[in-house]
Write a structure and sequence with these properties.
single chain, about 240 residues, mainly alpha, Four Helix Bundle (Hemerythrin (Met), subunit A), 2 domains, two-stranded antiparallel ribbon, 11 helices, about 0% strand, flat
Length: about 240
């Protein structure tokens, strides 16, 4: 295997991600909305069909025997427990996300049936911030990110996963631009309250509520001292 072969493989993945991202950019989608009019509601189905039809041969090529290099990282020993926990977390995120997302809407079928386009993946195509969507804004993308990295890795796999991880972030940012255009200040407020991937804002809010409900012993001691001083003024 020569350097040119690896370079070609990586360039193919980068090209796939660039084309995929370009097709969901606001520049392209706004142009297609004007050009296609009512027919634009079929665009998401076309986009998903195109994405899958180009992804399958790329996956087959990437997993062919020619790329079976020595593993650089393997999940062994106690790391297996971490691996299984991460996979379980990804499954939970997919399952809980599925309670709010609609697969027909995600695939683009619902838009055709209802004769209207929409960027949100809920069944109605409207904004939803309940359940797991109140913890992180994109649980399915987090699940994909976890699954990318919970398998044994060789050199080729690591480079491809880095490319796909960067693509997930860029693609999510492009998607969020469209959601802001569609839902305006409501989605901006949602962004302020809920983290994109890692639920730091949710955890911070939980810790803040916990501190209010269960003040520290030191704070309670000082409060008792102040109350005692008020009830027992100095003579």
């Amino acid at each position: 295997m020569v350097y040119r072969d690896y370079l070609l493989l990586y360039l193919l993945w980068i090209a796939y991600c660039v084309v995929h991202s370009a097709l969901i950019s606001t520049t392209v989608t706004n142009f297609l909305k004007r050009a296609l009019g009512k027919k634009y509601r079929s665009y998401r189905l076309f986009f998903n069909t195109f994405s899958v039809s180009t992804l399958v041969p790329l996956l087959i090529y990437s997993h062919s025997a020619r790329w079976n290099a020595e593993l650089i990282f393997t999940w062994e020993g106690y790391m297996r427990i971490i691996q299984y926990c991460l996979i379980a977390l990804a499954a939970i995120l997919v399952a809980t996300g599925a309670r709010h997302y609609s697969m027909p809407q995600f695939l683009g079928i619902q838009q055709i049936l209802r004769k209207q386009s929409g960027n949100a993946m809920t069944e109605s195509g409207q904004f939803d911030s309940s359940g797991v969507l109140g913890v992180m804004r994109h649980p399915w993308y987090v699940a994909v990110f976890i699954l990318l990295w919970t398998s044994d890795q060789n050199r080729t796999g690591i480079i491809i996963n880095l490319i796909l991880s960067a693509y997930l972030v860029i693609g999510t940012l492009l998607e969020e631009r469209k959601l802001v255009l569609e839902f305006g200040d409501r989605y901006r407020q949602y962004q302020d309250k809920v983290s994109m991937f890692i639920p730091m804002k949710w955890l911070k809010a939980k810790v803040h509520r916990w501190r209010i409900a269960f003040p520290s012993r030191e704070a309670s001691y000082h409060e008792e001292e102040r109350n005692f001083g008020r009830s027992h003024p100095p003579i």
